[in-house]
Fold each of these.
Amino acid sequence: MLKAIYPGSFDPVTFGHLDIMKRSSKIVDRLIVGVLNNNAKMPLFSVAERVKMLKEVSAGFDNIEIVPFDGLLIDFAKKMEAELIIRGLRAITDFEYELQMSQTNHKLGSGVETMFLTTSIEYSYLSSTTVKEIAAFGGDTSQFVPEAVKRELEKKMRAKEAY
Ligand code: PNS
């Protein structure tokens, strides 16, 4: 059985992430979406909120599981008994960081490989950061994130305004 981890911050999950999840879940037997619990990154959504949104948008896939993690990705991969780490590559600008991360992970944990899927062209420009910026300025995020995520973004932005 081929088990893979698709790790990330998912702050919040976008259609680009969902595309990688859908495509990689067809390649592997079991896909664990690892949600980084790292407050140093100052996420907009708590890890519990990010996990909840991911569970909602991946509900139709029976081989996808959403699991939060902290610490080293390679330790999480070993704990979950995953042989593969999956990452999406949008553009050449992603490459340097992803190469460094995959080589580091390879050094830290022999036996765990990283596999890259190129992002589908319609999502190559998309990032959680730009989605948050659009939402912060009251823009429409419906073409970038699933409806449930759009609602949570709007709720979060309203709460920030009231604060
Ligand atoms: O969605 P992101 O923010 O690009 O995901 C980055 C992530 C979570 C994959 C990366 O930050 C990570 O693996 N963090 C865990 C810490 C770790 O293992 N660091 C060493 C590898 S370079």
Amino acid sequence: MTDFVLPLPPTPSVAVASSTERFAVRRIFCVGRNYAAHVRELGNDERDPPFFFTKPADAVVDSGAEIPYPPLTANLHHEIELVAAIGKPGFRIPRDKALDHVWGYGVGIDLTRRDLQDEAKKMARPWDWSKAFDRSAPCGPLIPAAKSGHPQKGRIWLTVNGEARQDGDLSELIWPIADIVSACSEAVELQPGDLIFTGTPAGVGAVLAGDTMAGGVDGIGTIEITIGQPK
Ligand code: MN
């Protein structure tokens, strides 16, 4: 047994629907732009390949939590996303095998400090400070794919204080789940516990202290998060 100079940090995890067990989180990968605002042309080979960024594993937050308004921003945005939870290791996974590696699905919110992201884009700097901050990856309970199946369509939505903000459909995903898992596994060896946030539909916008976000994906689950006063 290795001895450590400090106590081991807690294992980040997300809830599993209808279970007392939890899903231990290893890493969090997120896809950039992934919904077309219009119906895409069939057989279009000109799609930009998906690109990824990451969040720390301990950025996960359970549904029902209150998250303090984060520092360094005056423009905190919600991005409702389908989350795929990896259950089986894989490197260079072919598309037709990719869904075998998905243990389950959940609904997450990719919280984004949009003002820092705009600045990072302008200055050609990394996105970390805009995307990878404390509590930036709320994720609702996972449903095992054995129960939900692998979703290809279904409403994905988010309200703020009951008012509709985002309303899309998984069928609008430019890169479906299998392509995302396959593409991610080209860059890293995927491992059990990895989460992939799969991108957000149109309608992203700002939230303020006191706001409650509620969102969901039909057939997968829901999430509710309140923004509290800054620390
Ligand atoms: Mn996103």
